[in-house]
Design brief:
The chain has about 120 residues and is mainly α. The protein has five helices and no strands. The chain has one domain: HPT domain (Four Helix Bundle (Hemerythrin (Met), subunit A)), CATH 1.20.120.160.
Length: about 120
């Protein structure tokens, strides 16, 4: 699977396989939680950067990395992983990566919503 694939179809199928007979209810729930939580974590990145709270910033990046990985959101996972590693050293120069992460989330959000849209 290429790292530039927006959403890994195998990850989505693995989530569907956890409750194969529920008509994607579980998948919709997981995606809903992700779409509700991620903007909060993005705001937390901005807030912790503004306050200089390196530990909180790293935690927020780690959280986005984990939830993105669970959904197979490869671009989000990769950017948040970079942010997490970078923030362990310094918060200098992270603004372009935050902006990239926010843009990637917008595109990923559309794709995830498309995946669970009623047919």
């Amino acid at each position: 699977m290429a790292n530039d694939t927006l959403i890994d179809p195998e990850a989505i199928e693995n989530l569907r396989a956890l409750n194969p007979d529920d008509g994607d209810t579980f998948l919709r729930d997981i995606i809903g939680i992700f779409l509700e939580d991620t903007p909060q974590r993005l705001a937390e990145l901005r807030e912790s950067l503004a306050s200089g709270d390196q530990h909180r910033f790293t935690r927020a990046a780690h959280s986005i990395k984990g939830s993105s990985s669970n959904l197979g959101a490869n671009q989000l996972r990769a950017i948040s992983e970079t942010l997490e590693h970078k923030s362990k050293v310094s918060l200098n120069g992270v603004i372009p990566l935050i902006e990239e992460l926010e843009s990637a989330f917008a595109v990923t959000k559309l794709e995830l919503e498309r995946l669970v849209a009623p047919v």
